[in-house]
Amino acid sequence: GGYIDAEWDLGEITLTSVTAYDEVDNFNVDHTDAGPNQLLEFRFGVESETFTQELRATGGADNLNWLVGAYFLTEELVQNQTADVARTLRDVPVEFGGTGGAPDPAGDLTGGLPVAFVRNINTQETDTFALFGQFDYALSEKLTVTVGGRYTSEEKTFDGRAFFEEELIPPEFSGLYDITGLSIEDDAFSWKLGLDYQASDDVLLYAGASRGFKSGGFNGGFIAFDPDPVGALEPYNPEFVNAYELGIKSEWLDNMLRVNGAVFLNDTSDLQVFTLVNTGDVPFIQLTNAANAEVLGAELDITAYPTDGLLFNLSAAYLDSELQDFIGGNGDDLSGNQLSFTPEWSVTGLARYDHDLGDRGSVYAQTSFSYKDDQFFSTENDPIAGQEAHTIFNARIGYNSPSGQYGVAVFGKNITDETYLTNVFDLTDFGWYQRFYAPPAMYGVELTVDF
Fold it and tell me: pTM for the whole thing?
């Protein structure tokens, strides 16, 4: 990939052009069951090509600063994915529940685990165009109002097919679906209103309201075993959020103490969510829209410099999240559930001391911690697919050369060797949960050179 950034100074107006191209080719193998047998293996291949062009004009005079622009994106995304299901059973004789070396797609994929190799190929193309602008106007020396808006028009097309890719599969079972020409068109207007009040040289109060959106599209995930793959390829809708925030940024005691805080409410409609559906055979993932969701939160960040070289920082966040009016893929009413990956409380802290050695460089020592409250990894709020509250501690001691070009450090991460999960997938169709653990305690030496 690469980009060209060009600017023209026209006096009171500055024109900016950013032209970019990116190409990605990625391949990932997932041995899902993580055991000695080949029960479930996925291979995810993706290629993408993206071109973007942005034009901006900025200017300002007296009490007004402004920015207007246009943006264009075109992207092609090609996915080539395979699922190798229960390959070990091919080596098991038929009388013991295997297939004796032959694949067995299990007919309509009900009544038993299919023993098959399935390929899923799809292409999704996106064209996006947007016009945007923002204006900052100083009503007085202390009060500034911000008004911004963006109009976006987007079109996506989708072609997809899935099939059993093996010679021994009977022709009537070879194709799972083959769909072309699906398309979706959306346009949306997003906006921002803000007020900044400079109460003093050291205290800024602000308030804001905005509306944003995430575009709709098609589920490019592996849905070959969905009982209704055609229905699963129906597009999901754009997601909209109305966000409101009140906050303060401040410094006290001659800049020895910095206190920033905010309270906010995010009201989301058509929330885009992944739900995993167990069918009794092979599970599949749905990408769909929940009717509504709300997140009420507060954040506080305190940084203190009690003496030269000594720093303390403490940050805390509170989230009260709730799904509203949402029926999951299994038909369960998930209204009232907590959003996935949203712990109620999160707290981080850091203490650091830097000591200047003059022409011999400098040394430092720091320790930090991170606390996360109970959280779920799924919209179903399955307690098994979740992680209880936990705290992680880290430490670091280092030396920097006088010029700052060279450095060496000894570090420890998760020094209490806390065992905790970062994600869990419910694969009870196969008889297990797939769990992803964070790294255990790690210690090391780090050498750095800045060029």
Answer: 0.85
